[in-house]
């Protein structure tokens, strides 16, 4: 079974950039990325991988919040969907 990038999650681009997720084949930069379900399942049981993935997502959310608020404020408003 394979999943497109949209089924894996909206934060996949950051994880792809950090090389935590590797798409099947050699898709071009703007092409839809597909991932093997068995690899996603295997990685979901690896605490080190999960820690790295969560840190990347949290950093991306923080950057999105800062961009949305403006650079002068530092109050956390939570997740941005």
Number of strands: 2
β-strand percent reads: 5-15%
Count of DSSP H/I helices = 4
Major sheet size, sense and barrel closure: 2 strands, antiparallel
Helix content: 40-55%
Strand order of the largest sheet: 1-2
Rg over CA atoms: 15 Å
Low-confidence stretches: none
- N→C terminal distance: 27 Å
- Secondary-structure element order, N to C: EHHEHH
Number of domains: 1
By helix and strand content, what is the structural category? mainly alpha
Shape: flat
The average pLDDT value, as a whole number, equals 75
Describe this structure in words.
The chain is 49% helix and 7% strand. The chain has 81 residues and is mostly helical. It has one domain. A two-stranded antiparallel ribbon has the order 1-2. The longest helix has 23 residues, at 47-69. The radius of gyration is 15 Å and the shape is flat. The model has no long low-confidence stretch (mean pLDDT 75).
């Amino acid at each position: 079974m394979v999943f497109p990038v949209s089924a894996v999650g909206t934060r996949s681009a950051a994880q792809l950039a950090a090389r935590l997720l590797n798409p099947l084949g050699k898709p071009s930069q703007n092409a839809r990325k597909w991932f093997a379900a068995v690899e996603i399942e295997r990685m979901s049981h690896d605490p080190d991988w999960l820690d790295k993935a969560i840190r990347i997502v949290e950093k991306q959310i923080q950057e999105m919040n800062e961009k949305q608020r403006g650079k002068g404020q530092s109050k956390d408003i939570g997740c941005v969907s």
